[in-house]
């Protein structure tokens, strides 16, 4: 977190970590797989399982919380995007939720929450 963000958090009487979480949430967007492919080719995409909160995992990366990141990798709920995942997203023309935590881009498929039949690109 920058010095300016820390000062702002202090002035607003807001927890600096909460301010960081808010910033990450605002920077999260749905992005078509076609726009993410080049980052996959460069090895910069990290897949976040649907059971995890994408913003919370991005915060863990921002805070360099190696223990939390390693724990999720061990559980299999966080990993580099695999060739099979990339192929599936390409074939289904999926859009994914994404947030940048340089140099990484964390991506997550979305679950259907409307009660209708779930499809790969639905959210």
TrEMBL record:
InterPro entries: DUF2288
Record-linked Pfam families: DUF2288
The protein's name: DUF2288 domain-containing protein
Originating species: Thiorhodococcus drewsii AZ1
């Amino acid at each position: 977190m920058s010095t300016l963000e820390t000062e702002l958090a202090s002035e607003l009487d807001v927890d600096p970590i909460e301010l960081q979480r808010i910033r990450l949430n605002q920077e999260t967007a749905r992005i078509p797989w076609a726009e993410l492919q080049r980052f996959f080719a460069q090895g910069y995409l990290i897949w976040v399982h649907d059971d995890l909160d994408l913003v919370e995992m991005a915060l863990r990366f921002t805070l360099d919380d190696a223990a939390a990141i390693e724990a999720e990798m061990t559980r299999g709920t966080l990993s580099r995007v695999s060739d099979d995942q990339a192929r599936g997203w390409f074939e289904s023309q999926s859009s994914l939720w994404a947030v940048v935590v340089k140099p990484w881009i964390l991506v997550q498929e979305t679950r259907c929450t409307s009660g209708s039949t779930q499809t790969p690109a639905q959210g």
